Amino acid sequence: MRKRRQRSRAVLAVVTAAVLGAAGCDAVGGDESAPSASGTEAQRVKPSPSPSTPVWDSSPASLAAVGDSITRAFDACSLLQDCPDASWATGTRAEVDSLAVRLLGAAKAASNSWNYAVSGARMTDLAGQMAQAAAKRPGLVTVMVGANDACRDTAAAMTSVADFRAQFEEALRTLRDAAPKAQVYVASVPNLKRLWSQGRDNPLGKQVWKLGICPSMLGDADAVDTAATERRDTVQDRVEAYNEVLEEVCAKDERCRFDGGAVYDFRFGTDQLSHIDWFHPSVNGQARLAEIAYREVTGKKA
Fold first, then answer.
1. What global pTM score does this model have?
2. φ and ψ at 66, to 5 degrees?
């Protein structure tokens, strides 16, 4: 009787060990082996991760700018003319302290930065500018475009959001085909309605506006009736939609950084607006844009 009980206990012990062994395999995982006492098997299954190099480089060796009249510093210096020396992106004026100068130093910025922006350009023109920029193999490309897509003769003539998206995606593909490792800083479209509200009290500015500067927003500048208000609100809504597109498309590219709406949120005052047209940034305004860009590119304050 005692021997049978001893044999029964032995059988039970063997079965229990088998069950516990099976449970142990399941706890580790169906495709993994239980680690040995030394842990070497576990190390082979799950190797320690190695540190990776960050994709974003806050100290690029060269810079190319694309975009529209803001990047050309239109009306910053003289009537209805570009003033690229005062550009926030690549300008050489000391009072602007452009992004290129801040990142590269004055001497290197003169030879290693290029401005391919064109006054009046819209998103549909960006792919061509990107092709020019890519040929230089720049470390960083700055993008500020979209205001002219909203600044049309009428609100109905504005670039559709779908076309704006497709054209921006095409521009990025153009850059990536020729310069796959170039970084891209994308500035948001400025708050056009705020620019209207800042300049509408200046008689000279309103006269210049009549020459055709952003008619969809600035036309009939003194009108505040329902139709005029709805027109401006429609333009403003489109600008906000453009900024959403810029953010969403940029987010799909690991080497692209959107400014998070920093330019849109910036409150241009009378000192930051051209005293020629009371719409484009003045030299002071260009300096503020350079500060924003430097902060967004490097994570540092100017």
1. 0.81
2. -130, 160
